[in-house]
Amino acid sequence: MPDPSPAFGREASSRPSRASLRTAVVWDVLKDALDRRVGTTGEGSLDVLDTGGGSGNFAVPVARLGHRVTVVDPSPNALFALERRAAEAGVADLVTGVQGDVRGLFDVVERGAYDAVLCHGVLEYVDDPAEGVRNTVAALRPGGALSLLGAGLGGAVLARALAGHFTEARTALGDPDGRWGAGDPVPRRFTAEQLTGLAEEAGLSVSAVHGVRIFADLVPGVLVDTEPGAAEALLKLEAAAAELAAFHAIATQLHVLAEKPA
């Protein structure tokens, strides 16, 4: 069976792709959660909701595992790309795209109908992150899992500082939304405590917190692309550091896996 990871397989040299360096940690955690849910329910095929899933970076690999995936996204262009990608992957019958967003989620999907919900890169852009999380939780069946991925405050501060933009780094550090200035394209960033707090306040039990892209965005691309074995070593380093709380503070993204009480 083809590798179902979001990187859609390895490059010809078997070296991890740049996409896999950025998504491998989240994918491994998500796949384990889906496997556990299959074991708990006894159902071989789960119902998965991907809010803001765009063109299917995660939805299509999840479908390739045999699960039914509904993608909710406000962009018609992204949903068109999703349809094409699902067809190319041979999972068009398992992937459904609907136009909408997390705020009006139940205008387009049912409550309590999903074994897992993905909310990746969404909370940064909504007016009320707490409402967004509550809606994703309401879409879950009892015992279902929420995969929550958000932009990390510390990673942005570190990146601006290493680029020599020290004033912007300090601005982000003190800004309530973690923004480094008017030109910042990300409306909001989070600490690990803020993301886990949102999940817990919505009634979920947090089972894991991971730092994502701790090193991948800081290492010069030429080093990863040209140094023999560098990409594989970096991938292993990311995985080893992801669960360590000390590195959550400098991660570009933060991933929280939480479960709804059964």
UniProtKB/TrEMBL annotation:
Source organism superkingdom: Bacteria
Entry-linked CDD domains: AdoMet_MTases
Designated name of the protein: Methyltransferase
Gene Ontology terms describing biological process: methylation
| One GO MF term | methyltransferase activity
Q: Which InterPro entries match?
A: Methyltransf_12, SAM-dependent_MTases_sf
Q: Which UniProt keywords apply?
A: Methyltransferase, S-adenosyl-L-methionine, Transferase
Q: Where is the Methyltransferase type domain?
A: 49-146
